[in-house]
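Z., the sequence and structure:
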Amino acid sequence: MSVKRVFRAESLESATVLLNEHAPEAQVIAGGTDLLVQIREEKNRGSIMVDITSVPELQLIDIKPDCIRIGAMVRFTDVVENDALKNLVPGLWSACKSVGSPQIRNLGTLGGNLANGSPAADCAPPLLAMNARVNVASIRGQKEIPLTEFYLGKGKTALQNDEMIESIIIPVSTIKPVLVSFEKLGLRNALAISRISASVCVTLDENAKILTCGVASGSLGLNPVRETELEEWLIGRTLDEACIKEAAKKFGDVVEERLAGRSSMPYKREAVQGVIKPALHRVLKNFKDMR
């Protein structure tokens, strides 16, 4: 679909007004790393673009005792260069660092990465594993949507035509330590689009027993998902080499059942073990380094 007009919003309020006035033809453009490709291939949903790159409220990173709020216009590079986020949410930091090239990281945004609805969105697994929420804005006000309820299928999200992502909210656990990791496989090392990715977020006691656990994956379904079956299996176990080996096999079994009958199943059954093992090993290493 060709683009007819582009409006530049100067505030969150003006952005939501523009979206409402021109719905359902309006579509938000931020970094444009995904949308410009869709426009070139005439796969974009709307013919009217609302440019939000000048909206200051969407570019903030706010770290509070109970949560971390990251604006929708925060770029991957902004996360990578933020030492506080590197220490607090290393899985998200690693995911942002793994995105594309420096040029793409300098343009691409966290909000756009989620709003695109891609099953391969790098930021989705660590955010899902950390129980993140998406704050959505429209002329009707703002509301929060758990990321577990945000994805509705390949390329589909819970966003209405007149809504946009305002920020991503990550709850800060009161249980310490919180250990988060991210791993992915791509078709190539440079500029790789995730073929399979996984993120782990756990809290451990002093003996490395898993108290709480979040595991999420990308490219193993129509959208990024929480791996609840594996989470339930891990909780209460001691994170050691034997546990990691058994968890990898368990994850392979889960994927085999999920993708039964698909030609990609044999590959993905083995490949998922190649992402969950290093993700859990990284968590275990970080735990040992803290002691």
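Residues 188-192 have pLDDT under 50 and may be disordered. The domain at 56-171 is CATH 3.30.465.10 (Uridine Diphospho-n-acetylenolpyruvylglucosamine Reductase; domain 3).

Let me know what you think.
H.
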